[in-house]
Design brief:
Blueprint (H helix, E strand, L loop, with lengths): L1 H27 L2 H4 L2 H30 L4
Helix pairs in contact: 1-3
Amino acid sequence: RQVQERLEPLEREIAELEATVRELTERQADPAVYREPQQAAAVAREKSSVEGRLEKLYNDWEALVEEPSP
């Protein structure tokens, strides 16, 4: 039960960040973004940052799932 209570907000944040990565990937595919080099760089930086946060959350999620039940 405690593990589930800790997993739920983690899973919500993971889902939100995965949606953000999809949105940023779509923006990177838009040629208009690359007409503005600063905008393209900002999108790339934001995506990299979100992916880094996601990696940490995936690791946290995995550690919780593997945690032994009391």
